[in-house]
Design a protein that fits this description.
Elements (H helix, E strand, L loop, with lengths): L4 E9 L4 H12 L3 H4 L6 E4 L4 E9 L6 H15 L9 E9 L5 E6 L18
Antiparallel strand pairs: 1-3, 1-4, 2-3, 4-5
C-alpha cells in the first residue's frame, strides 16, 4: 500500500479580494485545468472567504510523481502570477500530515500569507 499522507491546501488572492478570487476561478478552469484535474474531487470553493481549498486524503505525496510535481508547479506559478487590471499574485498555505505522528510539514507562498491553517492531533475517548 505504501506510505500515505493527508494534504490540505488553501489558495487565496492577495488580501482576499473578490476580483482576484473570481480570476482564480477562471484560472483553475482554463490555465490550470490539467494540474487541478487529478484533485478535482478534493477541491472546494469557499466563496464567503475567497478561498479555494484542497483536502486530499490518503495520497502518496512524493514530489517526483507527475501529478504532485504539476500541482506544486501550479502553486509556484500562482504565487508569481500578475494579472492585468491590478490583480496581483496569489497566496497558498499547505499542510501535509504523514502517517507517522511526527511527520507534519507546513509550507506557504505569496506576499500576504494569513497563517489561518493549524494542526491539532488529538485523541478523545467518550466512554
Amino acid at each position: 500500500m505504501g506510505y500515505r499522507s493527508d494534504v490540505t491546501v488553501a489558495i487565496y488572492p492577495d488580501e482576499r479580494k473578490q476580483e482576484g478570487y473570481d480570476a482564480l476561478k477562471v484560472l483553475m478552469g482554463t490555465t490550470f485545468k490539467d494540474e487541478a484535474a487529478p484533485f478535482e474531487a478534493d477541491m472546494e470553493w469557499h466563496d464567503d472567504g475567497c478561498v479555494l481549498a484542497f483536502n486530499i486524503t490518503g495520497i502518496k505525496w512524493y514530489e517526483a510523481y507527475p501529478d504532485i510535481k504539476a500541482f506544486l508547479h501550479m502553486l509556484n506559478v500562482l504565487v508569481n502570477e500578475v494579472e492585468e487590471g491590478g490583480i496581483e499574485g496569489y497566496n497558498y498555505e499547505m499542510v501535509r500530515l504523514g502517517e507517522d505522528a511526527d511527520d507534519t510539514e507546513f509550507s506557504n507562498g505569496g506576499e500576504f500569507i494569513e497563517y489561518f491553517m493549524s494542526v491539532s492531533r488529538a485523541v478523545r475517548m467518550n466512554i
